[in-house]
């Protein structure tokens, strides 16, 4: 029996059925039907465990981030996000990876937390999120100094090629979750770096919230190393739980 759209119950050939890009199981005939079903579907799609947000390992300013996944780690990443140098002094390939994953996590957050779908992404049934990523990079480039001085049209093309390379983890043909980011980069709060950078670029956090206070708190813990990082994990865990519930980031 042909699958029916869970919202309007129509089937092929009357409509074209596509499955949710996140869970690859629930069938919809259109973005409108997918959005109409979001309140119900979000309960079973992309729901993250509370346990992953409540851990509190230390992550102070003297600790390099991330622990793996990039050629080079940096210290005081939230301070760098605040002053616009987070992408500076990194290998070119690392910059490409960070841009791609900042975008991928943002569209994932928009989808799972707010039910908003980037029409030019895999969440809308597109083969890749390249068009949506290009818009994101345009926004990054609109902020003077966020991109490193070597960035140009040629480097942008290299970045896009990396994102479309199926052998790369940062693949624009695939969705990514917070838990994937944590596992791949080996740093409990690296997803917060990506989220705060996206907030810096787009001007709003998830749900339209302002991330200024959160960024200032995280950066202040990087400056104050007197407690050897004992409070950093606790603060980040509280912020992260708040993010999951109120979409501040």
UniProtKB/TrEMBL annotation:
Chain intervals for the UniProt region annotation (Disordered): 47-69
Keyword NAD recorded: no
Comp. bias intervals (Low complexity): 49-65
InterPro entries, per the entry: Znf_MYND
Pfam families assigned to the protein according to its UniProt record, in alphabetical order: zf-MYND
Molecular function per GO: zinc ion binding
Stretches assigned to the MYND-type domain: 5-45
PROSITE patterns: ZF_MYND_1, ZF_MYND_2
Signal sequence residues: none
Superkingdom of the source species: Eukaryota
Keywords: Metal-binding, Zinc, Zinc-finger
Protein name, as recorded: MYND-type domain-containing protein
